[in-house]
């Protein structure tokens, strides 16, 4: 195989094979606890021994992930780069100011759009209620991201923290804020899908 591929691709293939072999060995070794459990449980051993066996077996996913990172050169280099990089934990003032400007401007524009849909678009019929729902979802998404949450990333780590109103005054964690973000984004996507569906349904009538 080495004669048919380049040296770079062969090196990558060799590293992948070594990683897979290491993961296979780790998984095989961690299959010993359940087999031991079957033997111990039939011999009337103590509850502590059985609990210890199950505790060791529960490490399977953690060990596999550790072996994957340790035996794959790109992942190792990424972790070393993260360790060597100087992460800035200070609060970026320009980003917070940008969030506030965008948040208030989005609130004004979304309020204008909401007013036009409610009072100036009677010709749209029932379809305007679908647009109103989408407008409300967009407004809440903008308010949450730019005012309530205000996320700050911690590059190169896949991490961050929040400095918005929810975190500052109500002690809401970044994890909860991220869950709310996913929830409101899903509502916005569903509202957009309903608008498309209603629009297609109306177009077929004509």
TrEMBL record:
Q: Which UniProt keywords apply?
A: Membrane, Transmembrane, Transmembrane helix
Superkingdom in the source lineage = Eukaryota
**InterPro entries under this entry?**
7TM_GPCR_serpentine_rcpt_Sri
Which regions span the lipid bilayer? 20-40, 95-117, 129-149, 169-196
Name of this chain's protein: Rod shape-determining protein MreD
**Which lineage?**
Eukaryota, Metazoa, Ecdysozoa, Nematoda, Chromadorea
